[in-house]
Specification:
Blueprint: H1 3-7, E1 13-18, E2 24-29, E3 32-35, H2 45-50, H3 57-62, H4 64-75, E4 82-84, E5 88-91, E6 99-102, H5 106-116, E7 133-135, E8 141-143, E9 148-149, E10 152-156, E11 159-162, E12 166-167, E13 170-176, E14 193-200, E15 203-204, H6 205-211, E16 225-227, E17 232-233, E18 241-242, E19 262-263, E20 266-271, E21 274-277, H7 288-296, E22 307-309, H8 324-328, E23 339-346, E24 349-359
Parallel strand pairs: 6-22, 8-16, 9-24
Antiparallel strand pairs: 1-2, 1-5, 2-3, 3-4, 6-7, 10-11, 12-15, 13-14, 13-22, 14-16, 14-17, 18-19, 20-21, 20-23, 23-24
Bound molecules: calcium ion.
The site of calcium ion has 6 residues, from loops.
Amino acid sequence: MTTCERSAASLPWGVVRIGGGSPQPALRDRDAVVVVAGLPGLQEPDLAAALRAPTLNALIELGPSAWRAVQTAAADAPASARTPLAATTAVLPIRIPDFVDFYASLEHATNFGRIFRPSAPAVRENWRQMPVAYHGRASTVVVSGTPVRRPRGQTTPGVLAPTAQLDLEAELGYVCGPSSGGPIAIDRAEAHIFGVVLVNDWSARDIQRLEYEPLGPFLGKSFQTSMSAWITPLDALDGARVAPPAQDPPPARYLRAKDRWLLDVDLEIEINGEIVSRPSAGRLYWTPAQMLAHLTVNGARLSAGDLFASGTISGTQPHSEGSLAELFAGQRWLDDGDEVTLRGRAGAVELGEVRGRVAAA
Ligand code: CA
């Protein structure tokens, strides 16, 4: 392999501890981890400082030329810079200033409308006009492997109890690039996405059902959201781009992109070793660029490391739903001790996994 080919690598980003050491930015190369601080060619002071930080935020802020320099240096790194993945512990790779969760799957929105509002139209009028979303709780986003403690809340009116309807939501998450004032035009949105993660938006359906009208999800979601430890660079997923389904009615002008794309990521939901569903992200109604353009259209500022997620990804086929509420029609929820693992793959590119075990309330 020539140096030029190696330099084209786009390895997943993360932050690891080795032994009892401090968290350090790193790239993952299959079963090895390359800690990037101190590699030859990365001595520029701002970059060197960013690579000694305990999160990737400072590096993300430096922009694509810095990211490429690190990828190139890692591809040329000596064997001594590589550590077996199994000898490292991945930590939350970013400090997340803001977390927004969308609702971009028409199949999921339809299924949930039927479950939560059986007497009303499943999908509300505004859903096709804009990618609707809610602001999540950034400080309770945790890294894969963190247990999820069964939350308490009002599960029936006036009664505080542990949720009896703990659910998972399989989603794609997008980590934002350098900080920027809004609005961000849709055709520039791609330049503001640093990479892609898997997200499990744990949900307590009984708490959610009582609280979500009129202002949307709150305590039924905010107890914990899990994300994968490794962030796949957007350019590693060039081969996974597909054209999204047609949108009817045509969206507002600020949501019309010259080049429309989705990432065709195949997801897998596993509970206690059994695969229960295989959703695909290749048919989401709203695209990541539309989500980002909408998120900032009012002038809202984007911060490096902001996370926005697709919302639950459900398909039209049986066993392609992205939540237990849809898969099992209220007959199955998560028990204490259950372990949920979400995985994602786009062709040869593995997006890793997001895993969590349910702990008692
Ligand atoms: Ca969600």
